Amino acid sequence: KLDKEHENHDHDMAYLHGHDHEHDHEAEGHNHESEKSEEHKEHSDEIVLHEHQIEELGIKTITITPQKFREVIECGGEVLPSPSSQAVVAAKSDGIVHLSKGIVQGVKTSKGAAICQIATTGVSGGDPQNEARIRLTAAEAEYSRIKKLYDSNLATEKELRDAEAALAMARNAVVGNNRGSVAVSPIAGVVSQLLVDNGAYVTVGTPIAVVCADSRLTLRAFLPQTYYRNYPIINAAKFRMGYSEEIFSTESLKGRRVSDISVSPVANGYMSIDFEFDNNGSIVPGGFAEVFLLGAERSNVIVLSKKALIEEQSKYCVFVRLSEEHFAKRYVTIGASDGENVEILSGLKSGDKVVVDGAIYVKMAANTGAIPEGHHHH
């Protein structure tokens, strides 16, 4: 498809270079005498794209209207599991750890799923299987009791689900006829840490893994001390993880600031600000993040999507639509960015129509010198 688009684009550029002689003559005759020198001055840097090209290349514009924009402070941060949503998986017996298939850091696991088996063959001590079978018998009896109560509307659905989970965990703890035990995850979530290696020897109670319920996470931003005055007014943040281009917003993820607004301990020249938010399923705890802290709101700011900007040798430009088929390049000075949008300090005004989608295609047209043939002066 891209090859086809480039083929069409090359053909269109050739077309714009003056292979349509009828168009040349029409354009040369059109208003040729009227304000000739003014017109040349005004349109000498014009780019022409015909209606069918604009449609095919997906070029879209927006009309600039001043709007509200927040103060932004860019800094680093990390995404952590919320303290309230962590669980430690511990060894139920002495023995050698055999991690279950697919158990690695970052993998999702369900409640009651086996994290590892611990083989006790050759290890001194009692038979943990005997204890596991006793627990299984008790869990089966408890499930049977709750089920009868539930059927008679005397137990809640939550009580039934808890009994089912306890039974599943008890079954997981019985490993066939082998001597040993199984360490299972007490909650559904993500394995955020593996604390022992495969084949390691552990004793009863040794922590094996940390599982984080991935439904709620914490964004911890590290604010340089120079922004001390801004600390109390920061109430939201946007952030981008190292493995993705997507920009997340604590506000759209039902987030809230959880660090005390009045207390700002400083460590190594930085203050930390924590936000708790819902995980939408695509954020893995434990990663570093690029953070855009959002502060006080300002009115009457010219704001533009970052995708409208084209960088040229450390300068930024955009493309403005002058008429249906005529575009021009404008250099702009940019201010703060929240990762998605950027403040425009100069170069644009209210009412300008700016290309936001397909700006790169307009740039390609500009580079080929595709300007109205009627404005060439030989």
Key attributes of the depicted protein:
alpha+beta; single chain; 24 strands; disordered C terminus; 37% strand; eight-stranded antiparallel β-sheet; 378 residues; six-stranded antiparallel β-sheet; 7 helices
Chain-averaged pLDDT: 80
Through-space gap between termini: 39 Å
Radius of gyration: 32 Å
In percent terms, what proportion of residues is strand?
35-45%
- Percent in helix: 10-25%
> How many β-strand runs?
24
Structural class: alpha+beta
Low-confidence stretches: 11-44, 370-378
Please summarize the sheet with the most strands.
8 strands, antiparallel
Helical segment count: 7
Q: What does the overall shape look like?
A: elongated
Q: Characterize the quaternary organization of these chains.
A: single chain
Task: Give your account of this protein's structure.
The protein has 378 residues and is an alpha+beta fold. 24% of the residues lie in helices and 37% in strands. It has seven helices and 24 strands. Strand 16 (266-267) and strand 17 (270-278) form a beta hairpin. Helix 5 runs antiparallel to helix 6 (157-172). The protein starts with a helix and ends in an 11-residue tail after the last helix. 28% of the residues are buried.
